[in-house]
Amino acid sequence: MKNSHWFQVVGAAAVTVGMAVNAPVAMADGDADLLVVAKASDPQTLDPAQTMDNNDWTVTYPLYQRLVAYDVSEDGKGLTSVIGELASTWTASDDGTVWTFDLASGNAFSDGATVDAAAVEYSFNRLMDLGRGPSEAFPGGMKVEATGDMQVTFTLEQPFAPFLYTLANNGAGIVNPAVEGKGDDHGTEWLSANSAGSGAYMLTGWERGQSLVLEPNPNYGGATPEIEKIRVDIIAEAAARRLKLEAGDVHIAESLPVDQLDALGSKDGIEVQNYPSLKVTYLYLNNKVAPLDNVDVRRAISAAVDYQGIIDGILDGNGVQMHGPIPEGMWGQNKNATQYSYDLTSAKKALDVAGGASEEISFLYSDRDPLWEPIAIATQAYLSQLGLNVKLEKLANATMRERFDTGEFGIATGNWSPDFADPYMFTNYWFDSKRHGLAGNRSWYSNDKVDGLLQQAVVSSDTAERTALYGELQEIVTDEAAYVYLFQKDYRIAVRDDVEGFVFNPMLEDIFNFGGMSLSD
Amino acid sequence: MSDATVSVNPIKRVLSRVDWGYLWYQIKKSPLTLGGGAVVLIVLFLVIFAPVFATHDPNAIDLRARLAAPGWEHFFGTDEVGRDLYSRILYGGRQSVAVGFFVVLVAGFIGTFVGAFAGLIGGRVDVVIMRLMDVVLSVPSLVLIMALAAALGPSLINAAIAIALVRIPIYVRISRGQTLLIREMSFVTAAETFKASKLHILRWHILPNILSPVMVQATLDLGSTILLASALSFIGLGAQQPTAEWGAMVATGRNYILDQWWYSAFPGFAILITATAFNLLGDGIRDILDPKQKAR
Amino acid sequence: MSFLNVIRRRLMFLILVLFGVTVITFTISNLIPGDPARMIAGDRATPEIVQNIREDLGLDKPLPIQYLRYLEGVVQGDFGNSIRTRRPVLEDLRIFFPATLELALTALFFATALGIPLGVASAVWKDKPIDHFVRVIAVTGISTPAFWLGLLVILLFYGNLGWLPSGGRIDPSLEMPTRVTGFLMIDSLLAGDLTAFGSALKHILLPAFTLGFVHLGVVARQVRAAMLEELQQDYIRTAKANGLSRFKVVFTEALPNAMIPSITVLGLALGDLLYGAVLTETVFAWPGMGAYVVNSIQALDFPAVMGFTVVVSLAYVLINLAVDLIYMAVDPRIREVS
Fold first, then answer.
1. Domain count, chain B
2. Which of A81, A406, A433, B231 is most buried by its number of CB atoms within 10 A?
3. What's the pLDDT band for B214 if we cut at 50, 70, 90?
4. Where in this chain does the record put each Solute-binding protein family domain (chain A) (predicted)?
């Protein structure tokens, strides 16, 4: 290039800088057709048959429809019961093993293809054939068959009480069979970054690490959504998410620390909404390793934790202590089960019964939940009052999962939220000795009697009978201090006050009903 | 190990050869070096006697006094579980300084011997060693350290080992280069004609002469190692709770930067001051001990 | 030594580096405790599901076989699929690499634009206050924790003053310019979109400053050293004796010659900046390779980690090659010797 050209380019650039730097940028607030959600990290994959992460579901859930959906009450509260979404009606055989669904007409994928029985059959076969995380929610040996153009039949090997609810999971989203032609392995690579659903919205853009754009599905069978464009911005720093919310650049800011939410509540134009949730935080006590294999050591630990101190000090009071494994708001909770409270005298007594404990106890946590670190530090301090030697280990989440599965740990922090409103989600996962490790029984708890109760409860469809069975179970597992049942806390989210129609459902954390939401001017 | 006995004498020899009076005279002439050295001494003093200067137990939590602002009760405020930040910064310095010295000693020691060995033996062994070092040097060091630290398991000592391993090639290069130079000098060739063993040559001729540039490099490395260790702690691969460490404190504090800026500002400032002091001192000592490099 | 010789030797070394780097990263990635299959299987995964995923990803094979398979792919330009994003690693890197390069080059520009004048001033006024000042700047630069400096400038320029954005590459409400080079500032100019250009420029200022500050001092010190050497040369004295003004001597005679040895330092600095961006990108949510590799390490996504290391190591070797060639081209002395 000749010299003179260089000067022109540089000159042009200089002028441009001067003009462009001060150019006004459209604010999200001023645009009634655009809703911006700020979240901390990029989704990993958008394939409903692969993702097991609520962070991905924010985007995937509105892209797809399912046979059933969670109902909403008259006054706009998320319910734990389901109604038909793609299905108009359904029947179950008396023994609960054969389920027949008739599909509603008029639902279509974003490319215009009709959502028919073949698509439903394809989606479930794809899900089970890939055999990734989301397939776990469905009973093994389940057969799905299109028994008509618009009729699907599910055949189970044995009755499974919560079956209907599993169909509202993110993994049960119905995928356009056209993805089969997008590549090997049922088009997984393509579907990881694209959408092929019949939901209210479809994915129209994804700048990695920056933002995703959803726009209405033109062939959507339901009422046309009001918001013309949804943008999900990836903003890693909590402080930046908060400032953007304050400035009106975003409408909804996810996962803000407790302290920031309190500061935000008083700001103009911002509302901090609280919803009762079924999400619980608890500690796994590895029942297989010394000294935690001794029930009295576990009892001592359970009595040495200052539950109220953690709730007041770390959660700023926004939580309640759990009463056994089943949270408040879920049926089947047994109030007669033991609830430990902070009582050093009885903790020391229990430890004396156990004959003391000198082993070093490892305590694992990760940065997945910012509350885990203060909880770990506090617990270590509490247990040191008993003379227990606790060593904290902050791990990458992947490494921590490995240790859960191999059982090489003493104590660890965990969060749990149910996929459907059935105590099964807590009891059968946490205590079944067949689910040791990552699968759910993270405490490696074993009790034949408990296993028997769980088996009886899962095949019964009589709620009263199941309540009784689970009630007995709760008395055993709290007495044996299988876990440290810490707290249940509200779902809190900060939104601009012009956002209307958001319905929170405790089964759908981090998921927004974009199709039913709107922005007031 | 015989290596240890070998190394004592050369160091003594080098130290006895240093003209301390001249060194002091040179340091006095350079206000920046003097200032750096003084701050290093102050930092060392403060962290060694941390229990004396601390006002609180650095690990004592108080959930009712979380995130308190700086004041008389807590000079630098408190963290998210109510621990005193001033005391934690004092104790945290122990980790940083210890890691700095550990890395420099381990990497310097291993690197010097491997380099001298390669230079002395020559031939294929030399080629293999040096190519290996070249390869290690072309791997992005931070990523290598991160992966190593993750593989060894997150703890400060593992982070230090990871940093030391990655630093070795630098010392290998310096030490080999010096060895090659010295080998050609007349007193070594003379020793060789008298059939002195390689070990003898290494001990009495090579090591004493390469220690000076190695020590210059080591002083310079102290500052950058302290930075690197805090960076690892910042991304969670270094010190573990409840141990206080500066990088880890900055990392946790970033969540509170809008309302409690002091939480990450003070520990970060501590890193800055300490690293700057070590670097100023190292820079000055290099100028004095290694006049060839002075201009750089 | 001829150009061709240099190129041949460097390319041979490149193969060695490629092999060495993949062996080292593969070994270390597999030493990290944890199973990527468990990571993507999610909560509640049964051992059967984990095993199923392991088979799908080929993780059930012995490590040497896994390595050979990987190498076989790399030779054919296939870096495998990322475990985390399920997409080809090369595809992911193609998206993230230009962002990192744009940041590194801007930081380098910043470091040289300020570093060279500072270096010159400090050589011309050696041992004067300006010289001490430059030394302090240089030492502070290499002593500042970039992750901390980043937080402070965000707090100041975004939190308090509200002048500049806190993170990202461009205002997300703007239409992204058509991708040509992958450099947003260039692509937006090519598209004639001044608003996008302004936004991209605003977004890059803070991270580039933070990243460049570390190298500012290195550049200044190098220029100072080279200038001091040149200013002592005979030709300068001759020029002075011939009555050339001091300004002319410094800028037209000494500086061009002093820049030659500085090329090496600049080349090395670019290499450092490329992977030094890891922490800066994390703090500024800059969607580049650095943030990508940190997330990948956390998720045990070793195809992604290896893809990153291979690409950056390659870049490192190629930059060195380029430096050597430029060096030979501009410095007549080196050519004459060979």
1. 1
2. B231
3. confident
4. 82-434
